[in-house]
Each structure stands twice: as structure tokens, then as C-alpha cells.
Amino acid sequence: MSVSRSRILDLMKVQCRIFSTTFNPTSTRTGNKILRQRLKGPAVAAYYPRRVATYKDLRALYPGLETWDEEEEDRLEYLASYVLALLCLEA
Length: 91
Description:
91 residues; elongated
């Protein structure tokens, strides 16, 4: 005594509704396994330390405070030498 396919599909539908799973009679790949997993974003964000204040932040908070930004000074030196080299080539 065999059971018809439509009857088995109806049983599967009810089973999926009871256990809160997705009904997928053709067994196609839906990505549901990945979508049910917990999000990793908060764990990854908590792994890295919080960003501390930068020189720009300090200058914005305290405009009269004199600070030393070595990277900015190096950049300005490089630009000055580049402009000087261009002027020497023109002369």
C-alpha cells in the first residue's frame, strides 16, 4: 500500500509549518542555512579596539593648542621639495 506523492507533500508542508522550517520539495539551494545563522558584524566590531582621538580631533576641540603631527609635517616637506625641484627645472 503506497502513499501518493501529493499526500506526502501535504504532510511535509504541515511538518514545516509546525517546526518553523522552509518548505522546499525540490531540494533547491536557497541559502536558508546561512541566513538563519547569527550575524557576525557585532562580534567583529567588538574585536577591534575603539578609535582614539586623532590630531585633527584635538585641533578641532582646542584651536589654540599647538600640536605636532609628524605625518603632516613630512607631507608638507615633501611638497615643498617637489615645488622647489619644479622651480629649478623651469629656470
